[in-house]
Amino acid sequence: MFKTKHIVKLVLVTIVAALFLAGCGKEKATTGSSKDVLAKIKEDKKIVFGVKYDTRLFGLKNPKTGEVEGFDIDLSKALAEEMFGKDVKPEYVEVTSKTRVGLLNNGKVDAVVATMTITDERKKEVDFTDVYFDAGQSLLVKKGSKIQGLQDLKKGTTVLAVKGSTSAINIREKAPETTVLEYENYAEAFTALKAGKGDALTTDDSILYGMAEEDPSFELVGGTFTKEPYGIAVKKGNQELVDALNKALKSLKDSGKYDEIKNKWIKN
Fold first, then answer.
1. Residue 151: how many other CB atoms lie within 10 Å
2. Do the beta carbons of residue 185 and residue 54 sit within 8 Å?
């Protein structure tokens, strides 16, 4: 009887010890994998950028070629080459305003270049590079609309925005009487505007210019009423990657390559 109890205790101790060691090993692996994204990029010889697929001028998937095109795409390619030469290949994963932080923090992407405004609140979740583009929030309306600025957004008007964007937060503060409808992405929001489901669509002027270019029956009104500095986001704690991106961004600006890319896409 004593021998049997002793064997049972020994088995239980062995199982607990094995589970503890497995847990420690798992924690160590997780910590190591998230500790240095830059080192992982160099080891894998690829850098995965999270970009928009629905934002004309910045990141839009071409239905004919299947390629994603825009300012954010060309800039990220130039940054990758500036940092790594031909040794590291850039790859792209679709993100939206709602999903980009989650995909970054779970390791699906290494850096987000997706019209992402730098805010104090977002700095609690991710680290940002220096500003790579200055935008400002505005309104897009059908030409001839009675809506010509924030002052016209009153009770009975409806403004369309995108989930997870600073634009939705800002418009509720700036025009508290208007109704705000949020959509998953810009393509859905613009389709809703064209279908008459709202009186205006709000987001950064840089994005709205792309929509107006797509359909000239729409126009921007009222100027800009916020400042929206775009930054490249990386997972918190990866200062070496932030520094490398900042150094490459400065180099592109100093060489004139940045302006070349910007002028190719942003003509307003």
1. 9
2. yes
pTM: 0.78
Nearest to residue 187, comparing CAs of 210, 204, 206? 210
Reported as a single tens digit per residue, the pLDDT across 148-185 is 999 999 999 999 999 988 999 999 999 999 999 999 99
Q: Which tokens hold the place of 66?
A: 């299947």
Pair 202, 71: CB distance under 8 Å: no
DSSP 8-state secondary structure symbol assigned to residue 52: -
State the residue for tokens 């790594």.
84
Indicate if the alpha-carbon torsion angle 267, 128, 52, 222 is positive or negative. negative
Distance CA 234, CA 114 (A): 12
